[in-house]
Specification:
Elements: H1 5-21, H2 27-30, H3 36-42, H4 45-52, H5 54-64, H6 72-82, H7 91-94, H8 99-125, H9 129-153, H10 161-174, H11 178-188, H12 199-204, H13 210-227, H14 232-269
Helix pairs in contact: 1-14, 4-9, 5-10, 6-9, 8-9, 8-14, 9-10, 9-14, 10-11, 10-14, 13-14
Length: about 270
């Protein structure tokens, strides 16, 4: 049985409270971000090149999904396990899954992928600067996979270009400062409206998607420079990768949850 109007409105208020709470800066942001010019000087050229290549990776992801498309069947099976009486065969069927079950699977995705990020960050942190370049594309891939899995858990298909744009926006939100978060929330408002949308409008909202890469570089400033120290980098790598994936997953859960809530409220109103 799906949620009542009153329950959906309460759940929506919870998400809106979370959005307001995002105005606080994380510890690493509080101690300041390295200016780009300084970061350019102290970041080795091969790492700068690797970060720059993320532009092409994200462009490929938006256009075709690239090599990051998730396996939706895995998520469908997780939902099916929790709802043995409901027959789920594709993503469209997930739209009838109760939000509580969607939330459960979303939280499981966040926990599991955060653990994967911890191990991956520790392993690439052992060698310090020499293994850091390998960490960057893997972290991006895990970020995109996490958001795609969460999209499926809430009944949205990452095979659709529109959803991949929304995923990039989630990625932007998770790695932005206060001003950036507020701007992205305003931009995402049209995704919550089921009428008068088209592909051209969706693409116009992603004009700044390259900022994701620059934000990644900014984030890597303090966090990843600490990871450049051999052995000690293992600790920093495990912690920073885990926190980044956890933040990204939480963002995806909340923003996709909001979309599903608003869509169900619209359905009840018609």
């Amino acid at each position: 049985m799906l949620e009542s109007k009153e329950t959906l409105q309460q759940l929506l208020r919870e998400v809106e409270t979370w959005e307001k709470d995002q105005k606080g800066l994380w510890f690493w942001d509080r101690i300041g971000r390295l200016p780009f010019k300084i970061l350019d000087k102290i970041t080795p050229a091969f790492i700068q090149k690797k970060i720059g290549s993320l532009l092409e990776e994200l462009g490929s992801f938006i256009q075709s999904g690239g090599r990051y498309l998730s396996k939706e069947k895995t998520i469908i099976n997780k939902l099916q396990f929790l709802l043995p009486d409901l027959h789920l065969t594709n993503i469209n069927d997930i739209q009838q899954v109760p939000l509580k079950v969607m939330d459960t699977v979303g939280e499981e995705i966040q926990k599991t992928n955060s653990q994967v990020a911890t191990v991956q960050g520790a392993s690439t942190g052992i060698g310090g600067i020499f293994t850091l370049a390998a960490d960057i594309p893997v972290l991006l891939g895990l970020s995109l996979k996490t958001l795609q899995d969460i999209a499926v858990a809430y009944g949205y298909d990452p095979n659709d270009k529109e959803e991949r744009i929304f995923i990039i926006k989630c990625l932007q939100f998770a790695t932005s400062d206060i001003v950036g978060k507020e701007a992205i929330l305003n931009e995402l408002s049209s995704f919550y409206q089921s009428e008068n949308r088209n592909s051209k409008e969706m693409m116009s909202q992603i004009q700044g998607w390259r900022e994701v890469v620059y934000t990644y570089r900014d984030q890597f400033g303090w966090k990843k420079l600490l990871q450049m120290v051999p052995i000690a980098g293992m600790i920093f790598g495990a912690f920073t990768n885990r926190s980044m994936i956890s933040d990204i997953a939480e963002t995806g859960r909340m923003l996709y949850r909001k979309r599903r809530i608003l869509q169900r409220l619209d359905e009840l109103a018609t």
